[in-house]
Amino acid sequence: MTITTTRTQAPVVVDDDKCIADKGCTVCVDVCPLDVLAIDLVKNKAFMKFDECWYCMPCEKDCPTGAVHVNIPYLVR
Ligand code: SF4
Ligand code: SF4
Q1: 11-48 burial, b for 16+ CB within 10 Å, e for fewer?
Q2: Mind telling me which residue stretches traverse the membrane in this protein (predicted)?
Q3: Which has the higher per-residue pLDDT, 18 or 6?
Q4: pLDDT digits (tens, 9 = 90+) for 11-35
Q5: Which one of 10, 12, 39, 40 has the minimum C-beta count within 10 Å?
Q6: Which residue's CA is minimally distant from atom 2 of ligand 2?
Q7: pLDDT at residue 77 in the model
Q8: Which residues are registered as beta bridge partners of 39?
């Protein structure tokens, strides 16, 4: 899988201000069947590590603070 180079242009974007990974949350990382999300150990926030996505949505739906946004491409809507 390709490592995500520009996090703001990845299919899944995490709002650092809302993410509570620094308080121990790993929900989005745990629910992703592709294992493409990870916790940035420097910032202690979740991010899309690998630029690949099934657009299955549990990361966005299960995030307790609404920090995850999945940008669904027009063609798979
Ligand atoms: S589920 Fe939400 S709050 Fe928890 S680590 Fe992921 S983005 Fe952060
Ligand atoms: S939409 Fe699915 S595949 Fe994509 S990051 Fe979220 S849980 Fe993982």
Answers
A1: bbbbebeebebeeebebbbebbeeebbbbeeeeebbbb
A2: none
A3: 18
A4: 999 999 999 999 999 999 999 999 9
A5: 40
A6: 56
A7: 61
A8: 46
